[in-house]
């Protein structure tokens, strides 16, 4: 994380020093200016984000696919005054009574755009970001065994990046907290989606060390110590590092998750985080209580989730006549 | 207005053309650079917006309040390529496997910020935009009996408007579907928040005929016929009237609800409806399964919900030492 994000608060200095400036510097930056735009996969006017499918010419000479995600960044409280004073241009758009609107054009240093590149990108990546109609699935345990599990096993979506983090081969300097226990331990890191410039959209991920737990469906009372560690130590680590108390954190799992290595999401309660809606998120506190009440709760209960029209898993449910 | 749905680009153009340029020209632009920042009223990391309370010195010499709303603008498809090619600076933030993130700093002309000024602003305006801190509560059944229930009973929220609908004294013409059974029946009406102009933000409410059920906490297996009627008939009615299939509906209860007469929310799955996040929404299908599994599930289980700092119920939990 050379040129690492600058978290606000007192940790700035330590953080800056902690960041290894050679690790990332070794990597050639993606040739963004040479990107040939193929299509806009998705736009979100609300999130001020756009998902692009582009191509760049690889060393071997042929076009290689890339996904480029551009997202405008939240305002930083400490830079708002600069914005008002240093703006290069202010255009009056309209004025009515006590209300007026302007176009403000700030200097580059105050206009950061968070850019995420997936390169080389597979067809799966392109599909993942393509806007699609969604359908709600009510998955029984039988559906899971007969449709979802075989599907997961047939897929080979690489989670090497998860192992890189767990093995400290990547993002080691980004680790916020670790419990090294191979069975009940985990690593807490900032999510890619969070640039750490402000706490409003705080987003961290706890990745468990044990590798055989795919999702909520695999959890039993055996995993309670692990889950309680994540809940307890995760809250403490976020409070210590970022000053955000546990009562202002939304701590949850996704079902379906986007990758099948058990992980837990920590987001700021005030942040309307994508994926925090009821049809996908399961509060860790509820999961713990459900397992404490019935060790096989998640091997019995139907679970609801949404699938996009293009997702192969939806086709499997359709073929099975379950949609 | 900054948080409202963005008008489509077409409207933006009309809006721009509609803006009275001469009238506007007559008005001296707001002295944004002279604004003395008093406080940040609210930030929205998701919407990339910030609401500021500032002061400027009025002609008469004393400080006058203003609300300044800054909101980053959505990407315009036709300008995305410029953004990639003309960016002034690209900084590698982190790199892991096929994923990398960058900070991109575009030129001013590609970094418009929508700026809205309310000037002079009254205390009402300041309050309107002020963000309240939220706290997560984990309410046990004992908390419910000792804190929440007495609080609800001490309040006299009028729900006459609900009775007016149930008795056809109001909105009779808006009823989408009714099951008249006094015990297991309900009325389905469009929610006030939905203008019915488009299906994207479809929002309906099912109000039960029986009046003694306050919330999720009162539900037992006795209510399964009622809940199953709402789930089944509600889906059918929405499909019949609006052509939206049940697989594209999010059907849920709120806890805490905003009024204590049992009601169920129906929203378009594609619509990121306020109140559909995991800390407030409970899928009706899950509620039915939980009650079928254990009639007293909701008299046993802890339930999580968020309260704003100014809510009286939060004070009650604080007084009881539960926050």
UniProtKB/TrEMBL annotation, chains A, B:
Q: Could you tell me the keywords of this UniProt record?
A: Acetylation, Cytoplasm, Hydrolase, mRNA processing, mRNA splicing, Nucleus, Phosphoprotein
Compartments, record wording: Cytoplasm; Nucleus
Instruction: Name the predominant localization.
Output: cytoplasm
Provide one Gene Ontology cellular component.
cytoplasm
**Which GO biological process categories is it annotated with?**
deadenylation-dependent decapping of nuclear-transcribed mRNA; mRNA processing; RNA splicing
Q: Which residues form the active site?
A: 263
Any Pfam family: DcpS_C
What molecular function terms (GO) are annotated for this protein? 5'-(N(7)-methyl 5'-triphosphoguanosine)-[mRNA] diphosphatase activity; RNA 7-methylguanosine cap binding
Q: Its quaternary structure?
A: Homodimer. Associates with components of the exosome multienzyme ribonuclease complex, such as EXOSC3 and EXOSC4. Interacts with NDOR1.
The cross-references to InterPro entries, in alphabetical order and at most eight, read: DcpS/DCS2, Histidine_triad_CS, HIT-like_sf, Scavenger_mRNA_decap_enz_N
Report the function annotation for this chain.
Decapping scavenger enzyme that catalyzes the cleavage of a residual cap structure following the degradation of mRNAs by the 3'->5' exosome-mediated mRNA decay pathway.
Q: What is this protein called?
A: m7GpppX diphosphatase
What the record says about family reads: Belongs to the HIT family.
Assigned EC number: 3.6.1.59
